[in-house]
Amino acid sequence: MICRELIELLEKKYPPSIAESWDNPGLQVGSYEKEIKSIYIALDATGEVIRHAIDAKADLLLTHHPMLMHGLKKINDGDFYGRRVLELIKHDIAYYAMHTNYDIVEMAPLAARMLALKDAQIMEKTCVLPDGREGGFGMAGELPKEMTLLQCAEYVKDVFQIPDVKIFGNPETVLNRAAVLPGSGKSMTADALRNGAEVYITGDFGHHDGIDAVDQGLNVIDAGHYGIEHIFIGQMAEELKERFPEMEICTEPIRHPFLMV
């Protein structure tokens, strides 16, 4: 399949037009006319991931986070961005990213399904999707059963296979309703509160973000940015295998970017 054809099919479901204005999804490196027979899926296009894509003899590297978010004035081997781009070009690997357009269509709904949230609703509606459904950021719904904050933290760790999480709030607080926003969620604390959440499951919460949320009656489970968003890898692999059975699909192993010691 030609790269252009593959992108057109992907973008029917995940149109770049619905992405946030600051975002940069799409084909970032490579030719639209390249023949694509194998795809390597990861969350980020790090140097290590690119080496793994090379070893897998991938024709296309597909990530969630765009490697290039700002304009480059030079592309050379004097900096790590340049080295990444040059490695992709040298090994004839096209590189495509799908970021907030994927978030709006699939990321939070997938996380809500994995958490078995009942009667889940979008926290912030932003658009109408190509299939006529409403799209947006975050989901809020009822937990599958009543649980304490500590029990909910253990539940989140189990569902997303996370070694540890950070909690803000009294561990013994009893919870019934949750909001979930994979990635960085501190900017949507007010939306979680507006949707009646008692606990907010997200990532990238700082000291003041957490204590201010608790002061407003919202407990927080910070599962890390990678901690929940890594579900992109498995979901996209399943979708691509189903939609393009002739395509070879490889995935980056789940490897958290830091350790708690």
Automatic annotation (TrEMBL):
Keyword annotations from UniProtKB, A to Z: Metal-binding
Metal-binding listed as a keyword: yes
Organism whose genome encodes this protein: Faecalicatena fissicatena
Annotated protein name in UniProt: GTP cyclohydrolase 1 type 2 homolog
Top-rank taxon, per record: Bacteria
Family, similarity comment: Belongs to the GTP cyclohydrolase I type 2/NIF3 family.
Keyword hit for Acetylation: no
InterPro entries listed in its UniProt record: DUF34/NIF3 (IPR002678), DUF34/NIF3_sf (IPR036069)
Pfam name, any one: DUF34_NIF3
Gene3D superfamilies documented for this protein: NIF3 (NGG1p interacting factor 3)-like
